[in-house]
């Protein structure tokens, strides 16, 4: 489909995206752009990219430019790219927050060539070594503010994600950021805080390691996620995240109160209410 | 190894245990005891057990009796069983709390035939349909207060768990309950509270369902766990759980403070500290 694609960032998301493009024969040649020489070299070695170039040279040669870097640097880098492109090129990002980016871009004369996307897939690992084959399949991909982009650009991006096995959900970037706070950002904060709880109070690390079953591992797994990715997400989505975090603390206080008062009925009610998540998460 | 084994309770743990005994040729005949006729019938249909009997008849016929029921009923049921057994029989439980049970049993004249165990394996599902083949393998099994049991009883129980692929960790029941609060009980409370947070604030359930990626699912998965199992666990381990829960709330408050003050350095520090969990959880 594309002769040449550039991925900006050569990490978990961009790397897995590049692998998928190749597997699905959607790109002949993939250029990697990275601030970190070691990562670029690693991505080349792993066969994720075919060539490493500086941003301006890479963009010039590419039909499609895919930006997957921390959300704080996404804004200046995408703006820089928009200054370089022509009317036939398409740019998309994969960031976890969308509203600030949308605001930063909306007055750019080329903004219609940009498509704001958030594929709802990831792992707690980062860097080119974290890239995996078969990522994205079966998950939703959010496309934000599609009406602000050219129809043909949106269609191209949707087509790629569908070829990767994703289904498309369209919404505006403001709604996206609220939902993302619930279904992703709070899970990460909970998991980070749980790790800190255990590390603070449980000095016998050997015991944690020996005893932790699947339950602990699955709730604490996200705590391995990189600060360089998540700090900018939490800062950009600060108000929504604070809203959800306040609610989460108040929900935990209900468990605390039920235990302090040995109120078995209340504790049961809290758990049975939580069980309703079965309706939503199969 | 055994001619006849009784499992008391025919759910996730006991059912998976029975399946494993059969697979490893550790039991010729397995009797199921259940308060719920429907569950007993289902366990028979699924081939988990060979026969259903009332507790007294089952115990009389059995070399080994394995109790895996909610921890509040474990105490009276195990005491009842201890009144029926002889010096050649062995009894073990699989409960998630150990200290209260140990105290309740220690003055029973037959207490040396009882082995207190906690296999660190489970899922969020319950009932005989939740029983799976190949459970337990690769996980730790805690044996508590082994010095209070007959050596030969401990050896038999350890042998069984090892045949199931578990490795044995010995500790006293008081330590067990502290560690369990950290590596299991708090994860469940966090997950229940997270489910309640999302259900309370996020009214657009369709959006949760559409957007939830792997991260949300793994942190909220335990929220499907049954109140009938977890309320008694939290109540029996109330003081340890409250200790850890207070710490967890205070860790969440640190994230809240860092966001409220837009303190990027502090937020980064909190996340990087949480990343140390990588040392412990591979």
What does this structure look like?
Two copies of one chain form a homodimer. With 282 residues, the first copy, chain A, is α/β, with parallel strands linked by helices. The first copy, chain A, folds into two domains: 2-171, NAD(P)-binding Rossmann-like Domain (Rossmann fold, 3-Layer(aba) Sandwich), CATH 3.40.50; 176-279, 6-phosphogluconate dehydrogenase C-terminal like domain (6-phosphogluconate dehydrogenase C-terminal fold). Chain A has twelve helices and eight strands. Chain A has helices at residues 12-23, 37-45, 55-61, 71-82, 99-105, 151-163, 173-201, 205-211, 214-220, 227-236, 238-260, 264-274; strands spanning 2-8, 27-33, 51-52, 64-67, 90-93, 114-119, 140-144, 167-171. The first copy, chain A, has an eight-stranded mixed beta sheet with strand order 3-2-1-4-5-6-7-8, with helices on both faces. In chain A, helix 7 (173-201) packs across helix 11 (238-260) and helix 11 (238-260) packs antiparallel against helix 12 (264-274). The two termini of chain A are 36 Å apart. The model of chain A has no long low-confidence stretch (mean pLDDT 94). At the A-B interface, helix 7, helix 8, helix 9, helix 10 and helix 11 of A face helix 7, helix 8, helix 9, helix 10 and helix 11 of B.
